[in-house]
Amino acid sequence: MSIRKFLKMKKKQEKIVMITAYDYFSAKIAEAANVDMILVGDSASNVMLGNNDTIKIGMEEMIIFVKAVKKGAPNTFIIGDMPFLSYQVSDSEAIKNAGLLLKAGADAIKLEGGLNVVPLIKKMVDFGIPVMGHIGFTPQSYKQIGITSKGKTQTEEEVLLNSAKALENSGAFSIVLEMVTEPVAKKISEELAIPTIGIGSGRFCDGQVLVWHDLLGLNNEFEPKFLKKYLNGFELFKEAIENYSSEVKNGKFPEAKHAYKPIEEGSDQKL
Ligand SMILES: Nc1nc(=O)c2c([nH]1)NC[C@@H]1CN(c3ccc(C(=O)N[C@@H](CCC(=O)O)C(=O)O)cc3)CN21
Ligand SMILES: CC(C)C(=O)C(=O)O
Ligand SMILES: [Mg+2]
Q1: What region, left, alpha or beta, does residue 117 occupy, with left being phi > 0 and alpha being psi -120 to 50 degrees?
Q2: Is the beta carbon of 206 within 6 A of some atom in ligand 1?
Q3: 268 pLDDT higher than 90
Q4: Does the active-site annotation cover 178?
Q5: 237 and 213 in contact (C-beta within 8 Å)?
Q6: In degrees rounded to 5, what are phi and psi of residue 42?
Q7: Is this prediction's ipTM beyond 0.95?
């Protein structure tokens, strides 16, 4: 499993499928479904830990999630998202933290930013760490930039295109485009050799990513315009638990077949 595969897919205009996962069985399901890459996103802060943003998660938690995902999906390309403050303080701390995600089982790391992270990405790539970029709406900066799509003005378009090109030149193997207007995402995808992975960035990216809990409808708190829910997970899980609950209450579960029997007198029944 190598980053060259994704360049080839782009050349052949084969779309790249990415999904997030954070635990063993989710990763196992994603691998069984044959996705191209799994992102262990810092969105774990929201969907695994119940926080209201991605500021409130660190390396310790991300390492735990990456290790679990690697065990569930040993043959799928795994990207570890660098959490807030794991790469901003200094380049040496950033490289150390990127290395820790690789040691935990990631095949590559992702970090948010444009021109500001170019020197850092160059260093990481120099040291053999595959890096995915992430531009457009960058959630770790929402306190400064707000929650909004990007590429709506000529100025924003130029910033995005310049950032994308600089990230490619710095050695990034792919770039996430988050909530970038469709024409701008199309233009970036056409002008870069490396694949773009879109979330809320329209039809013309080289691949797409969605968060596990969002696309399975487990997250009943999140309804952005870009989301398509492929399952009504919250309701289905709730109904199953309600069925379990009522069967316990009315004595239908457990049945005799779910119970263990004592050894009968004079029998050679094994435990
Ligand atoms: N569960 C989950 N899914 C995600 O996609 C996700 C996370 N968490 N956490 C990290 C970031 C944050 N993301 C977000 C957060 C909010 C909006 C949002 O409120 N979008 C609205 C308003 C946009 C606007 O006003 O322009 C939308 O309708 O798209 C979108 C993406 C995407 N990422
Ligand atoms: C939404 C994707 C791109 C992400 O960064 C995450 O899940 O953390
Ligand atoms: Mg993220």
Answers
A1: alpha
A2: no
A3: no
A4: yes
A5: no
A6: -75, -5
A7: yes
How do the domains of the chain map onto residue ranges? 4-235
**Cβ atoms 36, 207 nearer than 8 A:** yes
Confidence band, pLDDT 50/70/90 cuts, at residue 1? low
Whether the predicted pLDDT of 186 surpasses 70:
yes
CA–CA dist 29, 77 (Å, integer): 14
Task: Report whether residue 112 contacts ligand 2, using a CB cutoff of 6 Å.
Answer: no
- C-alpha–C-alpha distance, residues 155 and 244, integer Å: 56
List the one residue out of 5, 1, 6 whose CA is nearest residue 205. Answer: 6
Number of C-beta neighbours around residue 79 at 10 A: 27
Residue 254: pLDDT over 90 = yes
* Mean pLDDT over the full length of the chain: 97
Q: Which residue has the tokens 């043959």?
A: 75
Tabulate helix, strand, coil % of the chain (nearest 5). 45, 15, 40
User: In the beta sheet, which residues pair with residue 19?
Assistant: 38, 210
| Strand-pair category, 196-199 with 207-210 | parallel
Structure letter (DSSP) for residue 263: P
- Measured from the CA of 47, which atom of ligand 1 is nearest? 1
Instruction: For residue 219, give the ligand nearest its CA.
Output: 1
270 pLDDT above the threshold of 80: no
Which residue blocks in the chain are alpha helix, DSSP H?
Answer: 4-11, 24-32, 44-47, 59-72, 91-104, 118-126, 142-145, 154-170, 182-191, 212-215, 233-249
Q: Check: CB of residue 73 under 8 Å from CB of residue 103.
A: no
Query: Is CATH 3.20.20.60 the right assignment for the domain spanning 4-235?
Result: yes
The partner residues of 208 in beta bridges, in order of sequence, read 17, 198
- 76 versus 1: the higher-pLDDT residue is 76
Six-digit token string for 221? 């708190």
Quick: pLDDT tens for 103-140: 999 999 999 999 999 999 999 999 999 999 999 999 99
